[in-house]
Amino acid sequence: MPYRAPTADFLYLFEHVVGLDQLTATDRFAEATPDMAQAILSEAGRMCEEVLAPLQRPGDLNPAALENGVVRTSPGFTTGYSAIAEGGWIGMAANPQYGGMGLPLTLLSAVNEMMSGACLALQLNPLMTQGQIEALEHHASDEIKALYLPKLITGEWAGTMNLTEAQAGSDVGALTTKAADNGDGTYAIDGQKIFISWGDSDLTDNICHLVLARLPDGPKGTKGISLFLVPKFLPGTDGNPGMANKLHVVSLEHKLGLHGSPTAVMAFEGATGWMIGQAHNGMKAMFTMMNNARLGVGIEGLGAGEGAYQHALAFAQERKQGRTPVAGGTGTIIDHADVRRMLTAMRAELYAARAIALSCAVAIDMGQATGDAAWQARAAFLTPIAKAYGTDVGHRVAHEGVQVHGGMGVIEETGAAQYARDVRVTMIYEGTNGIQAMDLVGRKMMDGGEAACRLLEEIAAGAETAREVLPDMAGKLWGACETLREATEWMLAKEDVQERFAGAASYLKAFALVFGAHLHLKSALAEGETGPRNALAAFHINRLLPEHSGLLEQACAGSAGLYSLSAEELAP
Which of the 8 DSSP states describes residue 211? Predict the structure, then answer.
C-alpha cells in the first residue's frame, strides 16, 4: 500500500510546537540538531515508503505460521527487518557504550510512528526489543549488559515481554509462573505465558524473553514478583547462541488483525534464566520497559491511523460518485461536504495526537537529561494521555477510513479494513485505555494535582499569548481550559477514588482535546494569521474541541447510576 512519511509535520512540530531545541541545549542531547533530525527522518522515511509499506498487505494475507516448532514469518519480513536492523533504527536511543546512537526518544518516536504507518505488524518487533534494551540498561548486571545489549541493539537478537497469563491479565499479581534458585546464579523458570508479541520468529539468531515469575519466598501480589531474562538459546562461552533453552511456543493466536505479527503462547519448563534487578522487585524493572512502551503503543496507534488516513485520502481523490457540489472541483468524492468533514477531522486529530505524543517524548528526554522532577512529573502525567488518545484516534481514524471508502471499505481487497483490524489491539495492550484513564485520575494525581495544574497554566498562558493574533480560537481555548480546570478540581476533591474512576475515560479524552487544541493553536500562531496549519487548528477548535464540555459533564457525574442496574438486570 502506498505510504508517505509525514516528515514535514514532524519537523514543524519539532521546531515550533514541542521544542526540540530544549533537548539540543542539554549536554546529553546536544547532537540532536535540526539538521540531524531532518537527515534521520528523511532516511527513515525513505525506508518506510520503499521497503516496509510494500509488506503491509502481504503480512495480512500470509500470516506468520508455526511449523515444526519454529515460527515462519510473512513473505518479505526478513528483508524488511534487515533494513530496520542494518539502518541502526533499533538502537537509536540506546547507550553508545553498547553500540547505540544515544539519540533522544523524541526522534525515535518519530521513526517508530513512520514504521507503524508503513507496516504496524513488523514495527512491533523492534518496539519490543527497544523496551527490553531500556529495562536492561537500567536494571541488569554489568555482565548481562555486556553480553546482551550489543546483540539487541544491532538487531541480531530480539527481545520480548512475558507478563500475561490466562488468569493474570491486568491483575499481574495473580501470576503463577515460578522461579527456583539453581544455586549457580541462574534460576529455573516454570510456567506458561500468553499474548507474547513476536514470541518467536525466524528473523533473528536468538530471542530474549523478559519473564515475570515468583520465587518460593515471594509474597502474594505484585510485591512478590521478580523479573528474569530467559533466552531461547543459552549463550556459549563465545557469546553466541548455543544450547536450546527449555522453552517453546505452544501455539500462535488467531487474531482480528496484525496477522504478520506472531502472538505466541509460551511454555517455560525449567528454563534457565537470570534475575534482572532485585528479588521481589520485578515490577519496578518491568515498568521501566512498560512506561515508555505505553508511549510507543500510543505512537503505534496514531501511526496506523496515519496510514489509514492516507489510504482514505487517496481513494477520495480518485473515486467519482454523483455530481460535484463545488464549482471548479475535482469531480471526485473529496468535493462532498461530509467526505471533506471526515478527512479534515482525521487529519486534525492525528496532528493533535502526534503533537501530544512528541510533547510527552520531549518531557521524558528532558527528565533524563536534566534530572528535573518537574519534567519527570510532566512526562508521567502525559504518558497515559498519549497512549490512550493516540490509540483512540488511530482506531477512530481507521474506522472513518472505511466509511470514506463506502461499500468498498468492507471489501478486503481495498485494504481499508486491515487498518481498522490491525489498530484495534493498541487500545488494549500495554494497559487498556480504561486503565490508562484510571491511572491518570488516580496515581498521577497523587501529587495534589500539581502536574495537571502546570499543564492547565501552560494552556491558559498559550491562549492569552494568541489573543491578539487569533482572538476567536484563543478565546474558545481559554474557556475550555477553565472548564477543564473546574473538572480537575472536582476530581481532586473526591477522596473516594471510585468516584474518579467512573468518569476517568471521559476526563482523559477531554484533557487530550483541550491540550491538543493548545498545541494546534501554538502551531497556527507560529505560522501566522493564514495558512494550512491555521485552517487545521480552526477546524479542531471550532468543530472538535466543543466535545470537551459534554465529556467533562460525564466525568463529574461520579459513580451515580453506574450500579443502578444489577448484573441480572443488565441481561436482556
Answer: E
Distance between CA atoms of residues 252 and 199, nearest Å: 9
Could you tell me the pLDDT band of residue 291, with boundaries at 50, 70 and 90?
A: confident
Residue whose C-alpha cell is 542531547: 29
In whole angstroms, give the CA distance from residue 1 to residue 53.
6
Output the nine-digit C-alpha cell for 408. Answer: 468498498
Q: What is the pLDDT of residues 332-380, one digit of tens each?
A: 999 999 999 999 999 999 999 999 999 999 999 999 999 999 999 999 9
Q: How many helices (H) and strands (E) does the chain have?
A: 19, 11
Is domain 158-280 in CATH 2.40.110.20, yes or no?
Answer: yes
C-beta atoms surrounding 566 within 10 Å: 8
Q: Would you say 372 and 366 are in contact if contact means Cβ atoms under 8 Å apart?
A: yes
d(CA 1, CA 419): 11
Q: Which amino acid is at 79?
A: T
Percent of the chain with pLDDT over 90: 90
Q: Where is 265: in which H helix or E strand?
A: strand 263-276
**Are the C-beta atoms of residues 153 and 91 closer than 8 Å to each other?**
yes
CATH code of 433-561, in short, is: 1.20.120
Signed CA dihedral, 306, 13, 538, 534: sign only = negative
| Mean pLDDT, the chain, integer | 96
Q: Is 253 a catalytic residue?
A: no
Alpha-carbon separation of residue 365 from 76, 145, 290, 422 (angstroms): 34, 22, 16, 29
Domain boundary assignment for the chain = 7-151, 158-280, 433-561
Residue 202 has pLDDT above 70, yes or no: yes
List, in sequence order, the alpha helices (H) in 65-141: 77-86, 105-139
State how far the Cα of 273 lies from the Cα of 122, in Å rounded to an integer. 27
Active-site entry in 50, 430, 486, 527:
430
Partners of 251 in the β-ladder: 265
Model pLDDT for residues 216-229, shown as the tens digit of each residue: 999 888 888 999 99
Contact call for residues 149 and 136 (beta carbons, < 8 A)? yes
Query: For residue 416, what are the CA distances in angstroms to 5, 50, 121, 401, 512?
Result: 18, 20, 15, 7, 26
pLDDT at 100: 97
pTM: 0.97
DSSP 5: -
Number of C-beta neighbours around residue 139 at 10 A: 23
Topology given in CATH for the domain delimited by 7-151: Butyryl-Coa Dehydrogenase, subunit A; domain 1 (1.10.540)
